[in-house]
Amino acid sequence: MTIKWTVAVPEQNTDVIPGTLDMLILKTLSLAPLHGFGIGRRVEQISRGVFRVNPGSLLVALQRLERSGWLDAEWRDTENGRRARFYSLTRAGRRQLDAETADWERRVAAIGRVLRAEA
Amino acid sequence: MSILRQIQRGVSALLFPARADADVDSELTHFAEQRAREIACTGTPYDEAVRQARLEMGNVTVAREAVRASGWEHGLDLLLGDVRYAMRRLRREPGFTVVAALTLALGIGAATAIFSAVNPILFRALPYPGADRIVTISERTTSGSALDPAYGTYEELLSRARTLEAISVTDGWAPSLTGTNEPERLDGRRVSASFFRTIGVLPAVGRSFDASEDVPGAAKVAIVSDRLLQRRFGGDAAIVGRTVSLDGEPYLVVGVMPTGFVDVTAPSVDVWSPLRAQPRADPNSREWGHHYRIVARLAPGTDVRGAARELATIAANPVAEFPRVPWASLQQGVLVRGLQDDITASARPALLAIVAAAAVLLLMACVNVTNLLLARSGRRRSEFGVRAALGAGGGRLVRQLLTESVLLALLGGVLAFVIANAGVGALIALAPPGLPRVDAIRVDATAFAFALAVTTVVGVVVGLLPAFAASRADVRADMQTGSRTVARRSAARGVLVVTEVALALVLLVGAGLLLRSLDRLFAVSPGIQPAHVLTMQVVNPDRAASPEASDRARQLFFERVVDAARTVPGVTEAALTSQLPLSGDLDAYGYAIESRPDQKPGENGAALRYAVTPGYFRSMGIQLVRGRLLDATDRAEAAPSFVISETLARVLDGDPLGQHLRFGPDVDGSRPWGTVVGVVRDVKQSSLADQDIPAFYVPMAQWRWVDPMQSLVVRTDGDAAALTTAVKRAVWGVDRNKPITRVATMEELMARTAAQRRFASVIYETFAIAALLLAAVGLYGVISGRVAERTREIGIRTALGATRGEIVSGVLRNGLALTAAGVIIGAASAVATTRLLETLLYGITRADPVTYASVIALLAGVAALACWAPARRAAGIDPVITLRAE
Lengths: 119, 886
Known about the structure:
Helices cover 51% and strands 13% of the residues of chain A. With 119 residues, chain A is of the alpha+beta class. The radius of gyration of chain A is 18 Å and the shape is globular.
């Protein structure tokens, strides 16, 4: 006899859709420079908890974007006196964000059309 | 911008890995702290919040690794690690590394050197524009071989052939250059005015010959090589327009050939002059002799076969406009050959044979490396099992092994480059005289790359086997010492060793056949006694007012030369001859026999002509068989006398002595018959391997002319070469303006006729020894491996009472069984493949049983030696230790 503690609804998938993490980071940073933890938190908040970013993948993505010249990074003190690495969008990053957003919207619209198609 | 950033970040991560890691770590720490703070806000105690945050974040090391692995520098870092590890492995197995690298180096080096030498000779286009359209045309003999054509034939083809865009004819010429420092005999060529246009290379300075300069009596002009310009005229192109003295006559220099230009049909030629031949000459003239060379360029739209077809039609249909002579009637047709085929025809068999030998050696190198790597992969299975168990992916293991193989190939490649360079140098030094295109031989980068690629691919593929096995197989089974796959691998190695033994035997048989041929060749009697004989060519090109006056002056000069040479201390006899045996001279004439009046002249074939002074037979050591030798009584005014060779004597019916003959230009009957007064032994003229051909000796004074170029033959009572300077000085004492060339002892000339066989033989011996070593190494490796695998079994046998002798003979039997299998396969392949060597053999067939028996004995002996050490080791196995170890 075991007692089930968990609710019998399927667990929600909180993984970021593959290939969209870069775009989410760029968009988040287009509002204001942030450190890594802040970026993750902001994505989670704005998506209302639908997406949760794993710190490992986030750091890998940040390193890649920084090396591609889309982000600048700089060590700064946070409001509570800790040192953190703050990332900000470069001009190339903004162009990249525009391109990725346009591409994303084009594809989402297409998927929508396919899904709405009558049999 | 971003590329710069990529490089800068990557390099700094490579140089300061600790700083890069620290950056990642502090970011991760920052994450954890922030998260802990959030959790603490909900009322959880701070310590508990930190713990929860850590749990949520997962493995920090994995995250750090992920960040580290995302940059390009990570690949480089891994590669460097692989290289360091591979170097450590190779250093730890010095035996394997040295043998494998040397094997690779030997195979690649030898293949590169041989191919580098052979490629320009046989395959690379000649250095003329459109060289593949240049052909040579010769007369065909009854046996199908090529005969130098006559000038009359050229005249006919020039007028009748339509498939030739240009046609030219050349003739030998050896003018003496005087008037500058020392008199020098040059190699020259008399050419038709069309020659340079035909081969497509014109003088770099000045001009080519004009047709008006190529007629009898035209002003004498010459073109010189850049080589001669540098050597004799200080490299000053102002020589064009000046005159030089050739054979005592002024020649106007009209051009200088480009630097590096070589007439491939006669590579040593330094000066060219128009032929100025007599058109439609009478049959007794020089123009109808077989001593010209025709070079032509095919017309557009025709190939060699098309031209051959047209010329065959012309040969078969004589026209009245071009009367032919009986000895140049073109009855057997003409031979049209590509220029490259023609000049390489004589060297081709030897070169193809050594190319085959190099290919066999390269193959053996591949087999041996495969064998070594297989043995090694067996030793490394447990290592790879462990690494796979610790989490190394298949890709990682493959990369590691790839690095090792490539490193080994690089090591072998560097050594191979050294060997190839030395080998090419040695080949050029060894090259037999007359090998065409030696000047074009360089280390061939393509050949080197090809050989390196072949061995590397083999090494890499075989080297990867353990990685695939490790990623597939059950790790635990591999980590235990007893493994069943050992037997399969051992069988594979057995097959490889049998292959090696077979290949080695093929090379050994080739080397053995060539060595025995050389032996047989030098056992042939040349018909002379070559020891203590010094020879040199003396030239008197002077011309007087009339041909008779020239002959008288030459006769006087040459008689004084013989007298002067006789006075040199140490000289026991001296004489002159118009042609020297084994020197490359070939001078033969048709003859008529008085007792066969119905026979046309030339129908008997030709006989070699030796116009000699009386002491010639004693100088050369030619033995009298019957009658008498020529002597001082055979003067110009005495009755004409001949001494003939045994072969010619056999042609005559009955007693040769006293029979009447006529030779050469005398066949037409304008002079009285000559009488045979003696018969001497046959003398080899062009090569020791030749059949004997008829020959006659005529007193120099009784021949129709006095040859301007004669060979002085001096017999000495000691070292012949030591008298060179003294004899030269004696000749120059008669006239210091006469060039002396071609100084050689008869022994040197004899050795030279076998040079091509010796060349092939030296290469085969070298390769065969290398192959024997490789086979021995392979055999040793396999047998040691088997002994090591069977340690336990041998221990048990010993414990059960097997004697040392039984153990040793068991191991030896094992090795010799492999050898025997290799020998059988090798002997069968050798019988098939030595066909390549056929033309180089002399006095033996390619199935020569003595050769086979001796090389098989040698191979078996070496194989037994290679198995001896592992057999001894097996006999020394202590059953107690072996069994306890299991």
